Amino acid sequence: MIPFEVRIDLKSGILNKSDRRSKRYLSDLNSYFIDTKKIESMIRKKNVLVYEVYEIVVPEELGHMMFGSSILYPGKVGSEYFLTKGHYHEKIETAEIYFCLKGEGYLVMESLEGEFLNIYMRSGSIAYVPPKWAHRTTNTGTEPFVCFYSVPATAGHDYDEIEKNGFKTTIIESEGKVKIIKKEDY
Amino acid sequence: MIPFEVRIDLKSGILNKSDRRSKRYLSDLNSYFIDTKKIESMIRKKNVLVYEVYEIVVPEELGHMMFGSSILYPGKVGSEYFLTKGHYHEKIETAEIYFCLKGEGYLVMESLEGEFLNIYMRSGSIAYVPPKWAHRTTNTGTEPFVCFYSVPATAGHDYDEIEKNGFKTTIIESEGKVKIIKKEDY
């Protein structure tokens, strides 16, 4: 395999080329927000783009690393900030690195052992998601929340657990402030 | 293991904390430049810092990734631009990602099969060094050449092969221009 280069726009997070590009609209996320009525009415009005991911694909073999960028747009569903689906890795023993280039938000994480932790990120924050921790991002700012990520190429995604049981915590605006809450307290 | 965050200064490449920090001065590199007489006289005058590496250490286990930053200062030994030692990985089947944040230079690479390739990098360039490719950076600009890197935690470094046999190519200033040359043609 031959070395290669891609270029990322450090402000927008857009790659000049990518092997996979996924876009998630409100309608792809209607089971992920607390206020299901609100999201339905928002979708009817305008099914906006919530986030997109640019992905560079390399052989899915030990020793290789996938990488790319995620761009999570600002917005809220009711009082809950826009978020990505989030996932565990299929190969649960794999870590992931998130490097925030622009904007601000949280890396929302929880472990198979039931622990949870949210890390605030802004330009220059590099977060390490150890093996066995599910992770999503939430944009609590007013501009796109742009991250570069790298992950072992064998990691894979497991979205099912999160789709079924969700994360324990989420982030809302409450009295003009960013507030991390347990969903059961909403 | 618990998730954690570090912060990188996107201009200087300095991490707000690191587990290992290495500094390489001219005297650490006297066998790496073509003009050995020139480097000896430079060291006698002032043994300047050529580069430094900030490293975040995680368990050296499959699924984890090390990361950090390298800051390669501008300068030349004779006409040859400042460079890092460069290395193969001990675990030869591991890749590495280099993400240039600031400055400009080249990622100089060659493979065990005798291929060689140099990629020009500037702010926003992300290069993929596949398994089995030795790699070093060269600063061909006038400001520090700052890169973020990530690598499988099991990769390890093999500096011996490069120290013994060097890279086939290097980068010099020739008639005011940046020029990649085969060392045998110097």
What labels describe this entry?
homodimer, 186 residues, mainly beta, 6-stranded antiparallel beta sheet, 3-stranded antiparallel beta sheet
- Quaternary class: homodimer
Cα gyration radius of chain A (Å): 16 Å
Number of helices of chain A: 2
Largest interface: A-B, 46 and 44 residues
Shape type of chain A: globular
Distance N to C terminus of chain A: 51 Å
Order of helices and strands of chain A: EEHEEEEEEEEEEHEE
Output the strand order for the largest sheet of chain A.
2-3-4-12-7-10
In total, the number of strands of chain A is 14
Largest sheet of chain A: 6 strands, antiparallel
Structural class of chain A: mainly beta
Summarize the amount of helix of chain A as a percent range: under 10%
Instruction: Quote the average pLDDT of chain A.
Output: 96
Describe this structure in words.
The structure is a homodimer of 186-residue chains. By secondary structure, chain A is mainly beta. The first copy, chain A, is 9% helix and 45% strand. Chain A has helices at 36-45, 160-165; strands at 4-7, 20-25, 49-56, 65-72, 76-77, 80-81, 96-102, 104-111, 116-122, 125-129, 133-139, 145-152, 169-174, 177-182. In chain A, the strands form four sheets. Chain A has a six-stranded antiparallel beta sheet with strand order 2-3-4-12-7-10, with no helix packed on it. A three-stranded antiparallel beta sheet of chain A has the order 9-8-11, with no helix packed on it. In chain A, strands 5-6 form a two-stranded antiparallel sheet. The longest helix of chain A has 10 residues, at 36-45. Chain A binds chain B through residues 1-10, 56, 58, 62-65, 67, 91, 93-97, 99, 107, 109, 115, 117, 119, 121, 123-131, 133, 135, 148, 150-152, 155, and chain B through 1-10, 56, 58, 62-65, 67, 91, 93-95, 97, 99, 107, 109, 115, 117, 119, 121, 123-131, 133, 148, 150-152, 155.
